[in-house]
Amino acid sequence: MKTKTTPSAKPRKKSTPAKAAPAVESSAPEVLGATQANGEPSAGVGARLRYVRELHGLSQRELARRAGLNHGTIGCIEKETISPSVGSLRKILDSLPMMLSEFFSLDPDIETQVFFRRDELLDVGAGGISLLQVGRNLTGRPLQILLERYAPGAETAAQPYSHEGEEGGVVIQGQVEVTVGGVAKVLGAGDGYLFSSRLPHRFRNVGDDEAVVVSANTPPL
Predict the structure, then answer these.
(1) Are residues 196 and 137 in the same domain?
(2) How confident is the model at residue 202, as a pLDDT?
(3) Residue 47 maps to a domain
(4) Are 102 and 136 contained in the same domain?
(5) Can you tell me the distance from the alpha carbon of 126 to that of 136, in angstroms, rounded to the nearest whole number?
(6) pLDDT score recorded for residue 139
């Protein structure tokens, strides 16, 4: 990795020297530099990155794939064994997408709020699916609770996917085709499901109206 240095003509005001990451040069991917190009503090970048990754329900591997980086890079940043350059951090955030200013304005501390009004739920869905999450920060929490709304024809993925954990839910409205381990079943209002998330699974609204589901699951790591 290259670190930008500038010859010092005069001693400047005493400032905290940037820490070199020990033993990183031989193991850290070279796509990231340790330079703090715009003066943003490196402390807390790892915790913030993990926070936004989990808010978006992404594994380290998936975020690395989206950003065009290798898997180990995201892990090293989150552990703060390396500091990303601003350009590299932008590349990661663009894959979410999220602005740099928004990233540094987030509070990665563990959520302490107990009660949430409707407008306080965080929508982590996309593509015709609204996933309203109870609580903004799930760091360290084993449970994710969602109010799911599927537009007609909307599906969670073209192909079933899997991850560690468990999940279950109840259909409140509409018709949802739930595929688990190659077996598909259409569930209506009042029907429920419970399965290991290790089994490949997918959800699809097969009705003509919006489908609503309330679910609980282990957040993907």
Answers:
(1) yes
(2) 97
(3) yes
(4) no
(5) 17
(6) 63
Residue ranges of the chain with per-residue pLDDT less than 50: 1-11, 13-43
Residues making up the chain, counted from first to last = 221
Number of domains in the chain: 2
Scan for tokens 């380290």, then name that residue: 60
Instruction: Give the neighbor-by-neighbor strand order of the sheet with 201-205.
Output: 183-187, 176-180, 201-205
Closest to 193 measured CA to CA, from 214, 174, 165, 220: 214
Q: Are residues 141 and 212 in the same domain?
A: yes
Strands in 211-217's sheet, in edge-to-edge order, are 122-123, 129-133, 144-150, 211-217, 166-173, 192-196
Residue 37 structural domain: 20-108
At how many degrees (to 10) do helices 45-55 and 86-94 cross? 10
pLDDT the model gives residue 183:
97
Q: Three-state SS for 53?
A: helix
pTM above 0.85, yes or no: no
d(CA 110, CA 101): 21
Q: Are 82 and 92 in contact (CB under 8 A)?
A: no
